[in-house]
Design brief:
The complex is a heterodimer of chains A (about 375) and B (about 210).
Chain A: E1 3-12, E2 15-16, H1 18-27, E3 33-35, E4 43-45, H2 59-73, E5 84-89, H3 108-119, E6 126-128, H4 134-147, E7 153-160, H5 164-172, E8 196-203, E9 212-223, H6 236-249, E10 258-260, H7 267-279, E11 286-288, H8 291-294, H9 301-314, E12 317-318, E13 334-335, E14 340-341, E15 346-353, E16 357-365
Parallel strand pairs in A: 5-6, 5-7, 10-11, 10-15, 11-13
Antiparallel strand pairs in A: 1-2, 1-8, 1-9, 3-4, 7-8, 9-16, 12-14, 15-16
Helix pairs in contact in A: 1-9, 2-3, 4-9
Chain B: E1 13-22, E2 25-28, E3 31-35, H1 40-50, H2 63-72, E4 90-96, H3 101-114, H4 119-122, H5 129-138, E5 144-148, H6 154-166, E6 172-181, E7 184-194, H7 202-209
Parallel strand pairs in B: 4-5, 4-6
Antiparallel strand pairs in B: 1-2, 1-7, 2-3, 6-7
The chains are: A alpha/beta (about 375), B alpha/beta (about 210).
Chain lengths: ~375, ~210
Amino acid sequence: MRVVLGSAHVVSPIGEGLAASLQRMREGGSALQHIAPSDGPAAVVGKIPEELLAPGPDRLYHLVDRVLGNVLDDLDRPQLNERWGCYIASTKGDIEALASADPDHARLPFLADHIQRKAGFTQRPWIISNACASGTSAIAIAGAAIARGHIDHAIVLGVDVLSRFVLRGFQALHAVSEAPCIPFDAARNGTSLGEACAAVVLTNDPAILKNKLGTFLGGSIAHDANHISGPSRTGEGLVRAIQGACDKAGIKASDIHAINAHGTGTDYNDGMESIAFERCELSAVPMSGYKGWFGHTLGAAGILESILALEALDRGWVLRNEGLVNAGVPGKVNALLKDERTTGDLLLKTSSGFGGCNAAVLLRAWKP
Amino acid sequence: MQRGSSFASMEAMRILSTTIYRNGRFSVDGKELARSAGDLDHDLTKAWTAMEVELPRFVRMDRSSKLVSIAAAPFFAADGALSKYPKDRIGMVIMGTHGSMDTDQRYLDQLEAENHASPGLFVYTLPNIAMGELSIQHGLHGSGLCLLSDAPDIPQLHDACDILLHDHDMEAVICGWSNIFAGSAEATFMVVTAGKEGNWDNDELERIFNEHG
């Protein structure tokens, strides 16, 4: 059975929509910016422009509504009956509500209720919270649910917004850079936090999609079983996730045309990924991470980056690692310094997160 | 709701063992292992020590991780339901309402009161960290899903196990509900495998998972 992706929409620090975001990445530099909070250390973050998302306590909900509305408008048959699933990927949802008058509204099921009502799903949405691997995990699970015949169509939506809660935590772990993050660079010094909402439809009936983006070939999730807040030095979980996805998709490593890595810009993560890619015999494959443009968007990252990497492939590009000057990682990888033309269409997307969770999906760009 | 089991692609699933923790009382396949009525931290420690498992990192874990560790530990005993399964073929599906909010609240209280972000607390402020702890304790490299829902969603758990068993090639799945918030803790965990003689009954599981007291 063929599972097709399409009718996607994104809002992130580089703007709104697939075509505009890709153009922004091709022609512009990092959207990461310096901020100076009154109650904490200065930082560099990726923030959604205020003209797209006004400040206020409900900005998470406005962001979700905007993305969801665009996705629904891009469907030919938007009645979301029992054959539709909804998969929400988020790490912290509306965590700022924890300090409000209604702290229980910080729980992720509260966000899921909002999405179910807003979109009119008859089924209760799934909420997948596999740390920074949430988004890629959600694509893998939604694709499998359609392939298994549980459902026919799914909306997969990832969202996380900037919060003092998370920024201060990453700063306390010395995991954020004082300058914009540069994934895979020898001088990388930590990540930069970002925020985004990204959503894509997966379906066994491409006729419902006004815009097609690619096909889902297979996915996998694996654990390092090593450390809760640091990746395995050998890349064990990521190697297993990549091999699992390849097995599921029935493809070999040598078939892959492009890798969209997690690429946080931390020493450990990027080093671990390079080792895993080399172990999987992917050293020659053009590889990039997108966080240099918009930062680490946590639960949204896997979905946002998959959509943008597919859009790039659809238009014949594998994009660079924004900001990369000297690649310096322990494993042998082909980290792109410049955007490259390609005729290839097979994308490996990977994500890794706290808890030692790794996810990988294989997607084929539509290329009509 | 019997969604799922009517579809042709669904294969039978067999539950091998069940553990239940409700506010100090811990039972394995109906047999009570521990009973305690102190505060939450005291009760969790008492349930853990009743199993006589050596694990130095237990005292360092947050409460959510402790609860998950307790609920799954009997499956790994010498005669436990998972003792014969290869470690990299054991998957995890763990659902709850509040995720890491018990620890989120403690981390935030300290941030607000002292303007200090504790790295030791922060690393536990993700719902899936308890699943990560479980994977480390038992060397589980397999697939895992941390799900959130306001109540135990049995059809979702069913479909998640089906995907892990048949799409992610797991041989057994630790599937359960775990919730800890506002001084109250409850967990219901099962070992689920693929098998010809299925015994997954949504109505029966709704009753078991929603039984309180």
